[in-house]
Design brief:
- The chain has about 290 residues and is mainly beta.
- The chain has a domain of about 200 residues.
- Helices cover about 5% and strands about 30% of the residues.
- The strands form 5 sheets. Strands 4, 5, 6, 7, 8, 9 and 10 form a 7-stranded mixed β-sheet that branches.
- The protein is globular and about 55 Å long.
C-alpha cells in the first residue's frame, strides 16, 4: 500500500520477480525488475505501470481481459494548439537512426514510458502543446473509460486526471501524455495510463490509450522492453514509412526495445527498435484502446 503521491506495481508473483518504486520529482516511474522477463505476465485494464505526474494508490494486483489495439490510428477528438510549436532537435527525423536509449547517466528528468528518458529521447511538451494535447486526449480517454474529469468529480467516484506539467513526451508530430484514474478525492483504487496522440496541420488528435498492470505491453525500453503484438508477424523498416524497405518481420511475443520518440508519418505513429528498424505503433501496444 502506498500513500497519495506514490504508485506501486506488482507483477504476477513468481520466484524471480519483485516490485520497484522510483520517485523522480513530481513524477513516479514504476518499473518491474525481473530476472525472468515477463514470466506469466498479463496485461490488464484495472492496474497500472507507468510514469505518472499525478499518482494513484493501488490496492493490489489483479487481472482483467486484455484490451486489443486498433488496426490503425484513430483521430476521434482533436484540438488546435494554442501556439505554434516547432519540432525539437531531440525529435527523431525520418530515416535517421536514433541513439540507443540505454545510457550510463541516470535520467535527470523523467520517463513518460519505461526506460525512455525525456531529453535523451524526445522532449518535454511546451505549455501550449501540453494544453492542446490535454484538450485532445482527456475527453477521449474519459469517454472510453466512462469516467468524469477530475475537476468535476464527486466523493467516491472514479475519475480521470491528466498528469500535471511537466508530463509526457513529444517526438515528430506525435506524442504521449501521462495521466491516470482513481477514486476521488484520495485517488485510491486507480491506475496509471498513457494517452498517445498525433499532430497534423489542424492540431493534435487522440490516437489511442493504454492502462496496464505490467510493463512490456506499451512501447518502452531498458530492462522491460515491449512485446510485439500481431497476428502473424510485424514488419520493421529502414524508415518510418509504409513504402520503406522491409528489414525483417517479428513474430508475436518477440521482446524488443524502443530507442526513439514517436514519429507520425503516413497516417501511422512509428517507433524505432534498437538494432532493427522502424515499426508501427499498432504492433507495440497490446493494451491500447481507441
Amino acid at each position: 500500500m502506498t500513500s497519495w503521491g506514490e504508485v506501486e506495481i506488482c507483477p504476477v508473483p513468481t520466484a524471480d520477480t519483485r516490485c520497484t518504486l522510483v520517485t523522480i520529482g513530481f513524477l513516479t516511474l514504476i518499473t518491474i525488475r525481473a530476472r525472468a522477463r515477463y514470466t506469466a505476465m498479463r496485461p490488464t485494464h484495472s492496474a497500472a505501470a507507468a510514469a505518472l505526474a499525478l499518482v494513484f494508490l493501488l490496492s493490489g494486483c489483479g487481472s482483467a481481459p486484455v484490451a486489443r489495439s486498433s488496426p490503425s490510428p484513430v483521430a476521434q477528438v482533436s484540438a488546435s494548439p494554442t501556439g505554434a510549436a516547432s519540432i525539437s532537435p531531440n525529435a527523431t527525423p525520418s530515416g535517421v537512426k536514433p541513439s540507443p536509449s540505454a545510457s550510463p547517466v541516470q535520467c535527470q528528468t523523467y520517463e513518460p514510458l519505461p526506460g525512455l528518458c525525456v531529453g535523451i529521447i524526445g522532449r518535454v511538451p511546451t505549455h501550449e502543446e501540453y494544453v492542446a494535447m490535454t484538450s485532445a486526449g482527456a475527453p477521449a480517454i474519459e469517454k472510453a473509460l466512462g469516467y468524469k474529469d477530475w475537476s468535476v468529480c464527486s466523493n467516491g467516484e472514479n475519475c480521470y486526471r491528466v498528469g500535471a506539467e511537466p508530463s509526457g513526451m513529444v517526438g515528430t508530430d506525435a506524442g504521449v501524455l501521462n495521466g491516470g484514474f482513481g477514486q476521488y478525492p484520495g485517488g485510491g483504487l486507480g491506475a496509471a495510463c498513457w494517452v498517445f496522440l498525433n499532430r497534423d496541420s489542424s492540431g493534435w488528435h487522440f490516437l489511442n490509450f493504454a492502462c496496464a498492470q505490467n510493463t512490456g505491453f506499451t512501447p518502452g525500453s531498458a530492462d522491460t522492453g515491449t512485446h510485439v503484438f500481431v497476428s502473424g508477424c510485424a514488419n520493421y523498416r529502414t524508415t518510418p514509412s509504409l513504402t520503406a524497405t522491409v528489414l525483417g518481420c517479428l513474430a508475436k511475443g518477440t521482446v524488443v526495445n524502443v530507442d526513439s520518440a514517436p514519429v507520425y508519418a503516413e497516417a501511422h505513429v512509428w517507433w524505432h527498435l534498437t538494432g532493427r528498424g522502424w515499426m508501427a505503433h499498432d504492433y507495440l501496444c497490446e493494451t491500447c484502446r481507441a
